[in-house]
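Two quick folds needed for the group meeting slides. Do the first one here.
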Amino acid sequence: MSLIKFLSSKIFLKQLILAIVALIVLSFLLIQWLKVDTNHGEFIQVPELKGKTLDVAEISLKDNDLRLEIQDSANYNPNYPKYSVIEQYPLAGAQVKEDRKIYVTVNPSGYRKVALPNIVRRTFRQAKPTLEALGFEVGNISYKDDIGKDEVLEMRFEGKTIKNGELLPITSKIDLILGNGNKASN
């Protein structure tokens, strides 16, 4: 039998039509299965998590069939409670599929600690910007008899003398004792 006769035979045409119908039916079934499996057209609204503790945020997400993923803990923000969410992505109100990860940034328990620089025997004019650049605040300034006028003689934190290299939380107020330019009397 020649190729042309075979291609025009009833058996070949019947098999070709059956194959095309089978392909159409399988494609239709595959598309329907994908719609069901991917929840096509079904979305969940992301809840507002800012300001909530991690436990409350996790419960809220589980109730909505979403997952919590801690992305980072940022610098301490005193406007939010400790260990609470300060940022989230996707943002509240966004439409997402179920089982989507919601990335959050958490507020740490407090300010990070920074080592004190060596500013003893430096002028106040040098010491103040050095402390402020590291995130400290200059607190009370008092004077004591010493030949070095406006020279830092001592640093104090909460009434205790502190030395360079000690770790203190950022935004701590450092009290300074400066020389008044008078020779110390014996």
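Then this one, please, same format:
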Amino acid sequence: MDIDRDRLEAVLAGLGQPFELFPCDPALADTAQFCAAYGFELGDSANTIVVVGKAEPRRYAVRDRLGTRKASFASADETQALTGMAIGGVTPFGLPPDLPIWVDAAVMARPRIVLGGGSRSWKVIASPGILLTLPGAEVVEGLAAPVG
């Protein structure tokens, strides 16, 4: 029994969208290593990154939308505490409901995307439309820097 996989499948099944779970070596879960090892295009990877404002009270999401002057990536410890997931496996599926999910518009133009699977042992492969099924998900133009 794989609790991580079972939990992930339960969340994904509730979205009513097709998906594939792809097992991976946890040592190869980081984007560049994963793509090189398993033959995926780097541009198909859509990373889930928690961002934190540097003002108190701390707010998590993306700088321009946080209402703070400074922001940075949340630390591995903060990410783990907030999401229950380790860096390299963070997925937008099953996040706390009060955490905003902003999707770069370029992600939506891909024919398929590869996302973290909630642990470093799994990836989710799906069409980008699956992200629009998440409560509060919002597509934002120019959110991320282009790959390459």
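Slide caption for protein two: The two ends are 39 Å apart (CA to CA).
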